[in-house]
Write a structure and sequence with these properties.
Low-confidence stretches: 1-11, 482-490
CATH class of the largest domain: Alpha Beta
Largest sheet: 7 strands, antiparallel
Bound molecules: adenosine monophosphate
CATH architecture of the largest domain: 4-Layer Sandwich
Number of helices: 16
Strand order of the largest sheet: 3-2-4-1-10-9-11
Number of strands: 26
CATH superfamily of the largest domain: Aminohydrolase, N-terminal nucleophile (Ntn) domain
Strand content: 25-35%
Length: 490
């Protein structure tokens, strides 16, 4: 694959949910859960339910609040269902990729919601196309749906899922509806999050635990890497099948740094605690004396509070101040198509409070630098309103390579840290000083070994076999045949 290009098809950077209840309609809980996951995708939203006889589906472009009206929710009958919010991808706004993806076939119906990105979708697509499968989108979710539908013609549900897991490679957290049964599947490396919750009258699956909280549910646990979870259609419980075991996980550290909500719990870590700890480590590694510490809202907040707290623990007279105000109604600057539009949007989005900054030395804390647009603009803005010095501290290592696993990162040519060292970047963004966090500090804050993390975007070495890129591990996979998978008949 050419340098810096995303893998095949549009990447899926999304939120997924699934609900199975005893005697209550699933649509409304799914709708509220999708609201809680809105930060994971704003391009489209969808729900598919099953009433025991047939599927009902409503998928629309736009935000959750705009995609459904009262009538839509009422028409989504059934006590089981899945939902999806899709992240916008620069340039491509394509309703054929909106999810859940549904398909009917000889032995039933399937609905699929996918978060992640396959790295061998094209290969599997071509194989299935050669066997007569017709595809309606270029997304990898449809590839999973067709492969699973095909396997379901020959195998029972568990074996069919296992066979599909042996065929697809890459990052996937899935909620699946097979007739009225809701399933959750997490890829063998556990790249994207997925968790189980108990709610009034049943169980649910969600990308993040915040979606369980909004339904007043109880977090049960994370879905394990390589695990299939089957929710009982009557809401009475769930069954677990460890279908694939891998020596190492490849958890995405960037979920904790940027993508997930701070009030979510992922793989035994509360995201808020991780961000605060990253902030503390940032002070330990590269603390700088200044009058005020300003977070870049919103994701920089927890980092900055950890940083300021660690500074104060050491007796440094650093004051934490909300000196940058964010306009919530400006969309995400990151995905704007042109650099001009991105710069204008940063200015619209962030405004410094002159009185907090004027005549002061300032440390600005952000979670990450991607293209450098935000930091360049911020340094300029803060100097314009009278900051004497502006020091940038970043709660992640330099992002030097693209993400193929489902987070929208720029290509290498656009990444400010690709091919430049920190001093070059400091000069480019015109800060008085600049420091990033080390990779070791990230692993320590997460309590995981580096071998269990996907660090592709900060090392350029990926835990998956991606054409044109190098890998940091043995990615050879055993052939998995559902029929001979050794699954106990129970
Ligand atoms: P940039 O301005 O290109 O350097 O992007 C950095 C800013 O965008 C930071 O303030 C991050 O909080 C935010 N950011 C980082 N990664 C992403 C992403 N994948 N999508 C949207 N925003 C991001």
């Amino acid at each position: 694959m050419p340098d810096g290009r995303h893998s095949e098809g549009p990447t899926e950077k999304c939120g997924v949910v699934g609900v199975s209840l005893d005697d209550r309609e699933a649509a409304r809980p799914l709708y509220y859960a999708l609201y809680a996951l809105q930060h994971r995708g704003q391009e489209s939203a969808g729900i598919v339910t099953h009433d025991g006889f047939q599927q009902h589906s409503h998928v629309e472009m736009g935000l959750v609040g705009d995609a459904f009206d009262e009538g839509d929710l009422e028409s989504l009958n059934g006590e089981t269902g899945i939902g999806h919010v899709r992240y916008p991808t620069a340039g491509s706004v394509d309703s054929s990729c909106a999810q859940p993806f549904s398909v009917s076939f000889k032995s039933g119906s399937l609905g699929l919601s996918h978060n992640g990105n396959l790295v061998n979708a094209e290969e599997v697509r071509q194989e299935l196309a050669a066997k007569g499968h017709a595809f309606t989108s270029d997304g990898d979710t449809e590839v999973i749906a067709h492969d699973l539908a095909r396997n379901l013609l020959e195998e029972d549900l568990i074996r069919a899922v296992k066979r599909t897991m042996g065929r697809i490679h890459g990052s996937y957290s899935l909620t699946i509806m097979h007739d009225d049964t809701v399933l959750g599947v997490r890829d063998p490396e556990g790249n994207r999050p997925l968790c189980i919750g108990e709610v009034d009258g049943g169980y649910m699956l969600a990308s993040e635990s915040a979606a369980i909280d909004v339904l007043d549910g109880e977090f049960v646990r994370d879905v394990k890497p390589g695990e299939l979870v089957v929710l009982q259609p009557d809401g009475s419980g769930f069954d677990s099948y460890q279908l694939v075991e891998q020596d190492n996980t490849a958890h995405c550290f960037f979920e904790h740094v940027y993508f997930a909500r701070p009030d979510s719990r992922i793989d035994d870590n509360l995201v808020y605690d991780v961000r605060r700890e990253l902030g503390r480590k940032l002070w330990d590694e590269s603390g700088v004396d200044s009058d005020v510490v300003l977070p870049v809202p919103d994701s920089g907040r927890a980092f900055a509070s950890g940083y300021a707290e660690a500074a104060q623990d050491e007796g440094a007279g650093v004051e934490f101040a909300e000196g940058l105000m964010k306009n919530r109604y400006v969309g995400r600057t990151f995905i704007m198509p042109t650099q001009d539009a991105r710069e204008r949007a940063v200015r619209l989005k962030l405004n410094p409070i002159r009185d907090v900054v004027e005549g002061k030395t300032v440390t600005v804390i952000d979670d990450s630098i991607v293209r450098g647009t935000t930091s360049t603009q911020l340094v300029q803005l803060l100097k314009d309103v009278g900051a004497e010095e502006v020091h940038m501290r970043i709660g992640a290592p330099p992002i030097v390579a693209p993400c193929y696993m489902g987070i929208d990162m720029a290509s290498r040519e656009e990444l400010i840290a690709a091919g430049q060292d920190t001093e070059d970047i400091r000069e480019e963004i015109a800060a008085d000083s600049l420091s990033y966090l080390s990779i070791d500090a990230v692993a320590e804050a997460l309590g995981e070994s580096k071998a269990d993390l996907c660090l592709g975007c900060v090392t350029g070495e990926y835990p998956y076999d991606i054409e044109g890129e190098t890998t940091d591990r043995d990615v050879a996979r055993p052939e998995i045949d559902g029929a001979e998978a050794g699954i106990a008949d129970d």
